Amino acid sequence: MAVETEYVIETKDLVKIYKTGKVKAVDGLNLRIKKGEIYALIGANGSGKTTSLNMISGALFPTSGEIKVFGYEVPKSRRLITNYIGVAPQDYSIYEDMSLEENVRFFSLIYGMSKTEFEPRFVELLKILRLEEKRKTQVKNLSGGMKRRTSIACSLIHSPKIVFFDEATVGVDPILRTFFWEYFRSLKNEGVTLVITSHVMDEAERADRIGLMRAGKLIAEGSPEELKRKHDASTIEEIFIKLSEGEIIDD
Amino acid sequence: MIKKKKDEFKSKNLNFSMKRTLAIAFKTINQLRRDRRTIALLSVVPIVVMLIFGLAFTGEVKNVPILVDNQDNLYTHPFPPIALHLGPNITDTLLNDTSVDVSFGDYFNGIDAVEKGDYYAAVYIPANFSEQVVKMLTGDNETVKMFVYIDATKPTIRASILGAIHDALDSALGEKGIKVVQILAHDRAEFTGLDVGIPSVIAFVIIFLLLIVGLITIVREKIQGTQDRLYSTPLRSSERLLGYVIGILLIAFLMIALVLIFGVFVFGAKVQGNVFLLIFAALLFGIAHVFMAVFLSNFAQNELQAIQFAPLTALPSMALGGMLVPIVSLPAWLQPVSYVVPLTYGINLFEGIMLKGWGFKELWLDFTVVAGMCLLFFVLAVLTVRSRMRD
Ligand SMILES: Nc1ncnc2c1ncn2[C@@H]1O[C@H](COP(=O)(O)OP(=O)(O)OP(=O)(O)O)[C@@H](O)[C@H]1O
Ligand SMILES: [Mg+2]
User: Fold this and answer.
1) Does B302 touch chain A if contact means CB atoms closer than 8 Å?
2) Of B150, B171, B187, which marks where a domain is finished?
3) From the CA of A45, how far away is ligand 1's center (Å)?
4) Nearest to B59 by CA among B324, B263, B353
5) Are residues B359 and B257 in the same domain?
6) Does B37 touch chain A (CB under 8 A)?
7) pLDDT per residue over A157-207, tens digit each?
8) What is the ipTM of this complex?
9) Which of A216, A214, A244, A219 shows the shortest CA–CA distance to A28?
10) What's the domain range around B307?
11) Low-confidence ranges of chain B (pLDDT < 50)
12) What pTM, to 2 d.p., does this model score?
């Protein structure tokens, strides 16, 4: 029963140096994320959030360090976890010349879903993401926020147990964003783990736990309340600005 | 308890899946089908290339204006008794030859006209031409002369005039002179320029189309970010590659069918050999080039660069692969290069099957080389797809 505090994601001294760049994009990252947690990775531009997510989801090989997802070593056993994770990358990463439905259908086929499994799940997601009317629209004719939501639909179609949202709510309007968070909560209640990166501070505030990154390192971690208490600040934004000092924030 | 968890993870289909492969293939076709610009390019290029090679580069020249001055007289030899008047025979044959357009006139005026560009040649048959021929036959004389003042600045035209004169002499002398007896090889197959062009066109079209389509497909995937996204899905590199190959080849086959149908029904091209072997050769040659496109996509950052790759590889191939000039006519130091140009083997295969009616027995070496190319580029393609993760 002691196994209850199960970590679904663990990284140990994770380092990434890109072949083309000399800097350490990620520099000794140690993360532990629990099942059913909503974890927000925040940090200035270039602090290594995307690089970290890509390594944990198995899309990018680390330079050194260890990654375990569901207890499986990544990237060595990365294929075993692929059916249970969903990734919505920072750029939309969907096919512009296909319709919304064709995009989601394509990803469902990659996850080995049948037509009968696809249909009800797709209809459900269209409703949650408020995309019912855009079902047959070519992605290139969608607005930025709608493309973002299409990308999210592609990452959720197979009902993953961990979702990685890399700035998934950029371009999504505040009303929809509130609605999304309700949905994120309901996913959490079903035992789904969410790892998000964000530049929107009130969004970070809604997470269970926040990790603040700077130059590839985790420099602060805890629940929003813990962090505010510890750094004697009233908002996460204050802490962010305080701790990211010396960084160029060009966003 | 941990054991049970592991089983749950392994139970999902992670082995090679045809369903995922076909999902990639179907998506590839779907995307290309909607890309009007590329489709237009793919349909127009083969036809244009075929027209150019079929009609312009065949070496066939028609109605070249020449002037003939025939002074030849009838010659009657006393002993042994022979009477000969070859001049009219020669001029009659030339008049019937469509490659030249004969006018009669004075040789010296003809020379001026050639210099001015009105004629490409002036032909002079001397008064004693028939006499000299007879004396050659009796052994009193060794050479017979006739004169051609000719414009040699255009090699194909020159060759065509000399060809016409040669034919005319041949028919005039008949059994009396030296007869070159032609026995047609490859089951007496005799082709016009267009038939000869079509195998080259097919090989060229396969290279050009598949490189463009392959590069566009993969580079698009790269810039849209979907390539990286797919790394965190169950999709395997082999499924992805095979999916591209199936999708792209289906499109390519439509294009090759178009070239064949157009060639056979519009231009009357012929296929001597086995049609299925031809399809197999096209398939093998095509697959090699899809893999090559995947590999080359490494070096292209956007669609424009991708499209530029096609002429960049196609033009040297045309020059070195035996499409414009037979390989044996290339300078000796260039010939070895021809043997690493894929087009060389494509042309060998398609010419062998279509023109010479050859089978696997005669073409095994070319088949082996193309199969080897497939393997080489497959390995390079897999490495390419994988290496992106190790950036
Ligand atoms: N493909 C790449 N090749 C070389 N260097 C890279 C590559 N991708 C990212 N980097 C570098 O790695 C560092 C971390 O980048 P990363 O994209 O992980 O930051 P981020 O925190 O996601 O930033 P943002 O908030 O702008 O999304 C940066 O210095 C960046 O320049
Ligand atoms: Mg990022």
Assistant:
1) no
2) B187
3) 8
4) B324
5) yes
6) no
7) 999 999 999 998 888 888 888 888 999 999 999 999 999 998 878 788 899
8) 0.90
9) A216
10) 18-57+192-389
11) 1-4
12) 0.79
